[in-house]
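Researcher: Can you fold this with calcium ion in place?
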Amino acid sequence: MKACARSVASVLGVIAISSVCFLGYAQGSRAPKKIAFTEDGYPYIRGEYLVKVRSSAALERLLDNQQESLGSVSRKAPVLDAGETGQWYKVQISDDYKLREAILSARESADVVYAEPNYVYYSQVSREKNLPTPPSRGGKGGPDYNAAPALPVPPVADPDIAKMYGLSKIGAQQAWQVTGGSAKVLVADIDTGIDYNHEDIINNLWRNPAEVAGDGIDNDGNGYIDDVVGWDFRDKDARPFDDNSHGTHTAGTIAATGGNGIGISGVAQQASIMSLRFLGGSEGSGSLEDAVKAIEYATNNGAQIMSNSWGGGGYSQTMFDAISRANDKGILFIAAAGNSGSDNDKKAQYPANYKLPNVLTIAATDSADKLASFSCFGVTTVHMAAPGVKILSTVPGSKYSSLSGTSMATPHVTGAAVLLKSVYPNMKARELKAALMESVEALPSLSGKVSTGGRLNISKALAVAKMQHGEPSSGN
Ligand SMILES: [Ca+2]
Ligand SMILES: [Ca+2]
Ligand SMILES: [Ca+2]
């Protein structure tokens, strides 16, 4: 009993002196809900935390100690999965009301690098309108490449392109005089999955060259079985199909097939899109654990650009480390600023606010070049804007629909980065980011709102890159 009392006192001591965010609870409901909020308003999964330890033995020691000192703390699953940035684990406890104590006591341990809530993230689409209902999960083992319409030669205009004001705003048509993109540029769409049988996307999907579909074997030894187009981290399988529409929409803006006489065109007409699903359901939500695994997968499997139209949870060291590792590999990480219409300089949004050289944060503008009413901004933390109001793109079932959000602005910049990378394959994250930021079109509505005071112009970005890196190389 004495040992127990000392333990509790020491935990309370930490509570008194620590400046870290504490966990609180949504008021007014006693019913067990899966999601709760920290005191500073960030959503997390009840009863779960992530911890990075110096060894697996250290984890066992920690959990044994917690069980002893915090009586009702139990571990449903001691070690569910190990991340790849080192030894981080997800811990589940039965009583969420003990989660704060569990995290704080973990942080006290010399064995622990950090401990944090398993935050929740959401797709950054405007909720003014319901998303179109996707069809039931299509296909068995992945995309049906045999059903893909062949790209006609010479290129045939995409019929709905006139409805895409975003492409005109950012100078896409002029940029296409230089390059339409390249299948050599691998871009990760970290989202709700993609309808990988969509008529206007199927030709621009990544195909894992070293993986054989449907044989139940991890042919390339990357830890994922039959991952031919990406991975579904939410449902833990090889079929990252879109159950929400959001991810198919962002994928189409990045690189719906241009010049095939069908539907629309992405900002890049050609690219290799990797579908990494960690968000899902009607809200398009997902966990920190799965987000980080998706980022790690993209980093480890050759992605050069990551498109991230989501946000929600608070500062996470696990995620910071994962994005930092992508930075070390020269991978650009493009993030939506958020849809709460607030100032990110005052209330941080993540991943948008991570201070890393490869993070490029995007606000949304409309067809009149005004900052969208829902768009977050931040003169130091948000870098630039792109069209994000009433954006026409692809949705599941080989359909097309308009959506609004910083979610829609972000993939415009991703597509632009694909175009740069396709003719300047040696440009690293830092250089891509600089070229995109230096070439923005300054707009009065963005002055004092984003650090560049401007909106994406890919045609100008290619011109800036040409001054810095010489003549563009052939895209293919
Ligand atoms: Ca594999
Ligand atoms: Ca296989
Ligand atoms: Ca098309």
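Model: Folded with calcium ion in place. Residues 211, 218-220, 222, 224, 227 surround calcium ion (ligand 1) (CB under 6 Å).
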